Amino acid sequence: MATSVEIPERTIAVGFQGEAGAYSQRAVKRLFTQATSVPFHSVHRVFEAVEIGTVAFGVVPLENSHAGSINETYDLLVRHGVSIVGETIVRISHCLLALPGTPLDEVRTVYSHTQALDQCSEFLDSLPVERIAVHDTAGAARILAERKESGAAAIASTEAAQLYELEVLASDIEDRADNSTKFVAIARGGSDLFGPPEKTSVVFATADMPGALYRCLKEFADRHLNLSKLEHRPSRAKAWQSNFYVDFDAPVHDPAAQEALQAVAELTSFLRVLGSYPRAR
Fold first, then answer.
1. Which among 73, 181, 200, 206 is annotated as catalytic?
2. Class of domain 95-171
3. Is 183 an active-site residue?
């Protein structure tokens, strides 16, 4: 359920997972110059809100440069009637936050989202701390501030530190300096808000025949369509069947893309275009 937010007239309502100060909210600000950010407890709730029209857009995490794909988001793209309409890449710079005056050597507990804990594993390994996963990085900061828990810290953003009046004990604690997350904007229909499409995301399940995946991929290669992503996830429709997710570098209305998709449709039991949209800048 969303936090109650008053949305001014002529302002776009954009849902995101997390609380104020979350990295997802930073992605909203990168994608939308004027928008009211509406927080939701889970990515699933963001999809539901977009689908029923509670918000015009949603912004959800899709892939991290260190931890890989966000599997939940890929599954939800298949289950809900929404499309990807834009993307952005957000640099994720984690900070260790604590109550003002807390020495680093007294920290024994660290709260954060499970992905953030994983992305900072090398730093955390150097400390004698227990790691506790919560629903959101900014939520971890809020919990710490509300409980006023001594000997505890949270991994979150600098925005969360300022918002919840916490002290930054250490900055840039992520394992990799190039730690980034790709976020996508979703909507019920297409949108030209972000410019003309340059890439297309599709999902399909191959027919049960030898070489089916090879034949599908060959249709793209034969038309010189570059694939920038290929991975599979278990299908919810049938046990031991996989859905294949493919990104290719062309708009869906490109003649070569249309030919390839028509050919792939004949080789698959399920095919859906998840969106055609501009590349992240």
1. 181
2. alpha beta
3. yes
pTM of the model: 0.89
Pinpoint the alpha helices (H) of 112-206.
114-119, 121-125, 137-147, 158-163
Same fold, 12-91+179-187 and 199-277: no
CA distance readout (Å), 36 to 32, 55, 67, 199: 9, 10, 29, 27
CA distances from 241 to 60, 167, 272 (A): 26, 49, 16
Statement: 199-277 belongs to CATH 2.60.120.10: no
Mean pLDDT, contiguous 10-residue spans, the chain (281 residues): 46 93 94 93 96 97 90 95 96 96 97 93 96 95 95 97 97 93 94 93 91 96 97 85 95 98 94 96 79
Active site residue 16: no
Q: What is the CATH number of domain 12-91+179-187?
A: 3.40.190.10
pLDDT reported for residue 214: 96
